[in-house]
Amino acid sequence: MNDFLARRRGLAKNCSHPVLLWAGSRVSRNFAANTYPFRASSHFLYFTGLNLAETVIYLEAGNLILFWDELPESAALWHGDSPTRDQLADQLQAQASYPLAKLAQFTANAATIPLVNPHDRQHQAQILNRPVEFPLVAEDLALAQALIDLRLTQDAAARSEISQAIAVTIRAQQAGMKITQNAKTEAKVRAWMEQVVAAHQFNLAYTSIVTTQGQVLHQEHSPHTLKPGDLLLVDLGAETPGGWAADITRTWPVSGKFSATQREIYEVVLAAQTQAIAAIKPGVEFWEIHRIALQVITEGLFGLGILQGSLRDLLALEIGTTFFPHGIGHLLGLDVHDMEDLGDLAGYGPGRNRSPKPGWRYLRLHRPLQEHMVVTIEPGFYQIPQLLNQARLDPNLGQWINWVVLTKFADVKGIRIEDDVLVTANGAEVLSQGLVKKTDDLESLWL
Amino acid sequence: MNDFLARRRGLAKNCSHPVLLWAGSRVSRNFAANTYPFRASSHFLYFTGLNLAETVIYLEAGNLILFWDELPESAALWHGDSPTRDQLADQLQAQASYPLAKLAQFTANAATIPLVNPHDRQHQAQILNRPVEFPLVAEDLALAQALIDLRLTQDAAARSEISQAIAVTIRAQQAGMKITQNAKTEAKVRAWMEQVVAAHQFNLAYTSIVTTQGQVLHQEHSPHTLKPGDLLLVDLGAETPGGWAADITRTWPVSGKFSATQREIYEVVLAAQTQAIAAIKPGVEFWEIHRIALQVITEGLFGLGILQGSLRDLLALEIGTTFFPHGIGHLLGLDVHDMEDLGDLAGYGPGRNRSPKPGWRYLRLHRPLQEHMVVTIEPGFYQIPQLLNQARLDPNLGQWINWVVLTKFADVKGIRIEDDVLVTANGAEVLSQGLVKKTDDLESLWL
């Protein structure tokens, strides 16, 4: 709990406004009582650790006031005992607590952050009697900047939570590798991994990607059967009960044996990741980490004969983005794309904006690295039909790809290798290093 | 697909208005791109079988017009190939299809049903330029009645879908019974069952209840360890990809062996269910099915000495509702509480309203049974502290409970037995009869 107090005091230093943070409300699936599992707003969780709907906190000078309505006595029949408001206030070390109706008395000069659900945002605007939306009004923007200053780097309690999320994710991924030998479908492997997460009473930080069609970057469905020559791309992360995320990707052969072509590309992607991680230290631009990965992938594909011409030209053209079209990684914390609810305010430093260029336009983080940032490093190689067609039809690009050689790599649809990395004082620590990723190590699991 | 055409024609017979039905939009979890799994509105699914967000259909005279915006080409990078509007229109056997912007030209005189998400409802109201909310305006009420007329009974295609949902649910429950012998926590058993559902590429129709604290009727969390004397109450239902639900509850001993007291109460609950099901046939009031279950439970507790005095007085007082406080069941279909998005319009026939009386106030269905209705039959026994305290303090009730005898049944916190039942021409068919429920059969699973 002292961690939460320290965060409240940290906010008070950075933000001169009193702050109202809403947990948010439950959302329904097909009828009102049939709700999705509730997940409080990350900003709210950051200061409370409390995943409770219809709850609001008021933060000022490091103090917290809780607003929450106790459930009616009749609710006990359906939901059992619930805490009293006083008990919740004690748990949060709140200075005071009131029913939600009192909230209107605490709105003067208050800053807030828009919730993700539009209905919730309307409620916030109604209570504050002003717009609560993007672009943010001045006081909300000031609060956003203060929150970003705090949350860009992870304190010890946050690092502990992230490590727990990673530990459970590793167990799930290991279970997935093991069950693949006996599974006939993507869905079976996915369900098997997700039950490991659920059995730990952790949630999923995001919709898992478990697919033999790795070239579809956000393939959220798993409808395919597993065939011996397939690679299975698994991007799955657990979330702790307190809301902290892991985000790990591995790609392994369904048969337990990489083909020669799969192994060659895999080694290129792994080299890109290794060199990207090796370059991480405080002060280095994340942009540079991305550039290194793109360079290693380009060099690797040149070495395999997939790219042809002069390496210097290939790098200048950035043709590697045809095969590695997304960013090298992103912030990781309470959100799997941390603070993406603030748009690019967190990911992009002041005065920085997304580049329109292929490959770069999807880079989610463009800041100098700082000690105690946690980022993902996730290079990939994909044969995406739309991008290959674009390159083929583009006289400036198509000539640099050896289409005959590329045909030999048809069994490599998509490979991604993703780890969660803590920026340390002098370099980087791979928090998810406990999970195998070398080709030989992956193959040895099948022996 | 002919099933969907038949439903569209059925609606045209019952409803003179043209009809607009929205699938609904995705809802986000902690940031916009991190969404919950999408689930289209049940009314939309009933006529299309299509689980696709941001889609609208216009139904008139049995014809269907599809409104949907094709995804931008850039979406292929993230989400792969998506169908064209023409392909979707073919799949739905639509008479025409347009972008969503054309919707405004089809609003004259159109009836609709409010979606569950308030933001979606606002969008509907904006397009139709009138309120879309409860209580319904006249044309929407007419549509609701027409939909209820159709959906109150299940056609052959619906019964087939419900049977598939039941089949997968039975496999999940069987897996749960088996894993209980080796599981240490509620969460493990729950995760194990849910992975069976997910491996079939089915969803969960509702938040599972997997608990040793069965006295909490809607205990959505599973935080407890399993102890040898516990009963585990498992209320879990799968949903087909087309959206059709199952809803089955079993209660089994963690140790594989009912205690004498657990067995005695279980037999009372099972007798209540057996007699309730035996009374089902077209024309019988569902109210009467509830009354029979309440009577059998009251007689059973009287026989065990938990209730005392004259049986006639006990029945008149309805003291059985202290131990069986919820309704005997509800409609089952595309929603686990079918059409509960319409409030009580579907569950309660014209001119009928909820009774304020204990036990009856939670009855979700109050209509005469009809052939091809599917209902749940789910009697239970619970020791709910709040209700027992109320009874103890009530001079009219407390004297009828033998508190000393009740103490001996302390290891029976909650038992529920729930099956899914089809009303047939002459009686009832228990669709979920393939899942064991006799005490001896449950115990034999552990041998």
Task: Offer a few descriptive terms.
homodimer; manganese ion binding (chains A, B); 447 residues; 14 helices; Creatine Amidinohydrolase, Chain A, domain 1; alpha+beta; EC 3.4.11.9 (chains A, B); globular; hydrolase (chains A, B); four-stranded mixed beta sheet; Creatine Amidinohydrolase; 36% helix; protease (chains A, B)
What does this structure look like?
The structure is a homodimer of 447-residue chains. Chain A is of the alpha+beta class. Chain A folds into two domains: 2-151, Creatine Amidinohydrolase, Chain A, domain 1 (3-Layer(aba) Sandwich), CATH 3.40.350.10; 156-444, Creatine Amidinohydrolase (Alpha-Beta Complex). Helices cover 36% and strands 13% of the residues of chain A. Chain A has helices spanning 2-14, 42-48, 75-79, 85-91, 118-128, 138-151, 156-179, 186-199, 260-278, 286-303, 311-317, 385-393, 403-408, 439-444; strands at residues 19-22, 55-60, 63-68, 96-98, 203-204, 209-211, 231-236, 238-239, 248-253, 374-377, 380-382, 414-416, 419-423, 428-430. In chain A, α9 packs antiparallel against α10 (286-303). The longest helix of chain A has 24 residues, at 156-179. The model of chain A has no long low-confidence stretch (mean pLDDT 96). Chains A and B meet through α3, α8 and α12 of A and α3, α8 and α12 of B.
